[in-house]
Amino acid sequence: MILVAIVAEFLEEYTALLARVLEQMFHEAPFPWRLRFLILRNLPFAHPTPPPRLIRGSA
Fold it and tell me: Domain ranges in the chain?
């Protein structure tokens, strides 16, 4: 049981690290912002990223 707990903890840390690496990679990827937003939103353990601000014209 102890080994299972150790492996589970390792996998959780590995998944969080992998999510952070993928998050950084997709922030800089040349994808349309909507596709980047969908990818980043579906990463496990990733921080939610707000959608980009809408560009408003001069009023």
Answer: 1-42
